[in-house]
Write a structure and sequence with these properties.
It comes from Rhizobium acidisoli. This is Transglutaminase family protein. Keywords: Plasmid. InterPro entries: Bac_transglu_N (IPR013589), Papain-like_cys_pep_sf (IPR038765), Transglutaminase-like (IPR002931). The protein has 284 residues and is of the alpha+beta class. The protein folds into 2 domains: 107 residues, Immunoglobulin-like; 161 residues, C8orf32 fold (Roll), CATH 3.10.620.30. Helix content is 18%, strand content 42%. Strands 1, 3, 6, 17 and 18 form a 5-stranded antiparallel sheet that branches. Strands 14-13-12-11-15 form a 5-stranded antiparallel sheet, covered by helices on one side. It has a 4-stranded antiparallel sheet with strand order 4-5-2-16, with no helix packed on it.
Length: 284
């Protein structure tokens, strides 16, 4: 499946302001199931782009602007080829077939903060342990149960506020955005001893019951020996990368916001922010 992704962010100001450097995480990550055919970034204000990678290996574009402006539009366009199977089979190492299991010393060291729960003794931990029906239990089935079970306790809602709710807030309020739901899943499985990471990117699924057919999206990945990092999307109760276009992964959502930056001026100079995302299939 070949997809075209257009992502546009527009800032408007009351008067021309000085723009601080903006950090952009917009380039999809390539792997055996995703190939980038083209990618470019365009900014309405004059500036220069420096490319780098962060500690997680995500591609970062840092834009330094050279002029004042009352409106800034940052646009990215990508064409990717997505070949992920909708019903993947995971070759999990026999040592991890049953939960609980122990990561190797090397895996423990490398997973580090990815396996560290924020509050292993809180309500989220108790909620996560309720999914463990027996000891031992099938590892993948346990993760699938948590992935599918979140929407039993939490309702999806579009949330325009910046940032991510804490996992405990999401449980208490019984609602959250895709990034809130993903953060709850990540904290829950970390409380059970799994290594997990946050993923941001795009989703393309015209049959989806939440979000648009194509939009920005947040989900999670869990590391299982032998299979590697497995995608879990609790917002849609799905497992595997089908329909997903990963852009970045990190320890938490705050580290992989698509566009971050600021300006020099008065607080009331800021008027509004608009974001438009379109993901469409290219049919040949």
């Amino acid at each position: 499946m070949k997809l075209q992704i257009k992502h546009q962010t527009t800032y408007r100001y009351l008067r021309p302001v000085g723009l601080l450097a903006h950090r952009l995480i917009l380039s999809p990550r390539t792997d055996e199931q995703l190939r980038i055919l083209s990618f470019n970034i365009d900014c309405s204000a004059n500036g220069s782009i420096a490319w780098s990678q962060d500690v997680f290996g995500n591609t970062i574009a840092t834009v330094t602007f050279s002029e004042r402006t009352s409106e800034l539009t940052i646009s990215s366009a990508a064409v990717v080829e997505q070949t992920a199977h909708p019903w993947p089979v995971f070759n999990i190492d026999i040592s991890a077939h049953s939960y609980p299991f122990t990561y190797s010393t090397e895996d423990k060291t490398d997973l580090g903060a990815f396996a560290a729960a924020t509050s292993p003794g809180n309500r989220v931990a108790d909620w996560a342990r309720a999914f463990v029906g027996s000891h031992p239990t099938d590892t993948l089935s346990l993760l699938k149960d948590i992935n599918a079970g979140i929407l039993t306790n939490v309702s999806y809602r579009i949330r325009d506020e910046e940032g991510t709710q804490s996992p405990q807030q999401t449980l208490e309020q019984a609602s959250g955005s895709c990034r809130d739901i993903a953060a709850l899943f990540i904290e829950a499985v970390r409380c059970l001893g799994f290594g997990a990471r946050a993923v941001s990117g795009y989703i393309y699924d015209p049959r989806a019951s939440v979000d648009d057919g194509g939009s920005t999206h947040a989900w999670a990945e869990v590391y299982l020996p032998g299979a590697g990092w497995i995608a879990f999307d609790p917002t849609h109760r799905r497992v595997g990368e089908a329909c997903l276009i990963p852009v970045a992964f990190a320890r938490n959502n705050a580290q992989i916001m698509p566009v971050t930056g600021g300006y020099t001026g008065m607080p009331d100079d800021f008027v509004d922010l608009g974001v438009s995302v379109k993901v469409i299939e290219i049919r040949e």
